[in-house]
Amino acid sequence: MAVEDQYQEIFQDVKAKVEKAKAEQNCTQNDSHCLFFDEKYVNVIENEVPKPQVCSIIEPAYKEFFVETITSDGLTCMSFCDPSYAQPKSCNDGKCVIQRDVGPQCLCPETDIFMYTGASCTGKISKAGVYAGVGVSLAVLFIVIITVSFYLVREKRKKNKDDFFRDSEDLWSHDTDDQWTAQNGIFNLNLNIDSD
Questions:
Q1: Quick one: which of 95, 63, 93 has its CA closest to 79?
Q2: What is the pLDDT of residues 94-137, one digit of tens each?
Q3: How many angstroms separate the CA atoms of 80 and 69, rounded?
Q4: Beta bridge partners of 69
Q5: Which end of the chain is more exposed for a tag (fewer CB within 10 A), N or C?
């Protein structure tokens, strides 16, 4: 909450309590046990509060990410990363930093061995696990591709071999001529055969 808003809240609270106390007390000027509010002496007046200059030392590029706040220590300049801020930036295990012209950002720890799915250092995932998972998946995919390719080539060769033998069988038993001639048939060279 900004300082001006806090001042207005405190001012209205004090004003209401003074008005309530004035209305509830039945004191006379001689009563020593109660507070006496006489309008001549007690008047609540709202004054202009000068704009605090606590955050004036902050560079202009960072200024919009800081706010002046009243704490138990007094008036202070607080960043959106400060855990005492009303709604601080949560970075879980990470560290909140204010970056120039960007604002509060989380710097996550151990980014050399982990990656995070969220900007607030949420969803911590081991890089080694991701790399191992991707490597195993690629190896399995490679083995499946090699196995399928092997079986496809084997089946194609078997089919081609079967087609070759089937075509060969068909060719030797079929002749284009319906009659056999000496060139196409068996020739007997034994001339000593009696012709009875």
A1: 63
A2: 999 999 888 999 999 999 999 999 889 999 999 999 999 999 99
A3: 11
A4: 76
A5: C
